[in-house]
């Protein structure tokens, strides 16, 4: 599975597109298949 991980808090250059293991479900755990997600910083 592909993921964007924040490897440092240095802004966009700290984000890395990488392969990660697909998580599995277990007792009291649910896996949700996300098709799209968004992120925004607060406007103050």
Automatic annotation (TrEMBL):
InterPro entries listed in its UniProt record: GroES-like_sf
Superkingdom of source: Bacteria
Protein's name in the database: Uncharacterized protein
Organism of origin: Mycobacteroides abscessus MAB_030201_1075
Lineage: Bacteria, Bacillati, Actinomycetota, Actinomycetes, Mycobacteriales
């Amino acid at each position: 599975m592909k993921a964007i991980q924040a490897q440092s808090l240095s802004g966009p250059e700290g984000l890395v597109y990488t392969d990660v293991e697909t998580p599995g479900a277990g007792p009291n755990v649910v896996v949700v298949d996300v098709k799209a997600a968004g992120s925004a910083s607060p406007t103050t």
